[in-house]
Fold SAM-dependent chlorinase/fluorinase.
Amino acid sequence: MSDCTDVAFLELCLAIEKSAFAISPAADIRIGPLVPAQRFSEINAAFLMRLVAELAAPGTVLLCVANSLRHRTERLVGRTARGDLVFVGANTGALGWLTRDLGVRECFEIEDPGFVPFGGKAVHAPVVGAVAAGRPVASAGAPFPPDAVRRTPVAEGDIVHIDNFGNGKFPFRADGLCHGDRLRVEVGGRRLEAVYGTRMMDEEDGTWVVYPGSSLGLHELGQVRARGLLDLPCAAGHRLRVRRAVPRPVRAGDQNELERRGG
């Protein structure tokens, strides 16, 4: 998982392979496709690491190369208590959601060579290759306390990801909301009229819908068969607000019309 989506991703892959084959020429390693992260977004990186871990097979090594922090942090390698997954990356908060939910069986601080340009290639990738070739996680460095793994705070309404359909994923408590309830959503400097639904595609084209999503118990905001949040000035890390739409006041003429119709 990385925000390095150009030739830098190929460099990461080659560095992993070089490290693994130097240790074991017959090593059988398979590098999965890139999971692209939003640039400079720790909250998106944390979500993606946790999301991928949900379906990753035991023994999978998850590498995170995405660091927007001004100051250098520890470089970590560890193994989850649940799922038996190995994680590698800088201690920026991107590993926090993963380690909180799956627990930590063991964690180590990778031996620090000092500052090097593109630490993902020079430091993290070789560790991934070594682990893939059979070296124990503990060989990478000194023990590191699991409770010192940083977490990126995620509050209700915080957008953690926007997919290529423009659907935003965010934590939300839908207490008391029912299918069809009218909502108002404030996001990206806009106020949107929306509806709460259980299946987004049931609504008319262009309708904004808040609905239970497919990822980690999060809700989603999307626009039916349209571009959704892609056309709004918002991204992962922005916060949206969802509330019930205030019923329109009933005027005397409206009430008479309702009574005439038997409403």
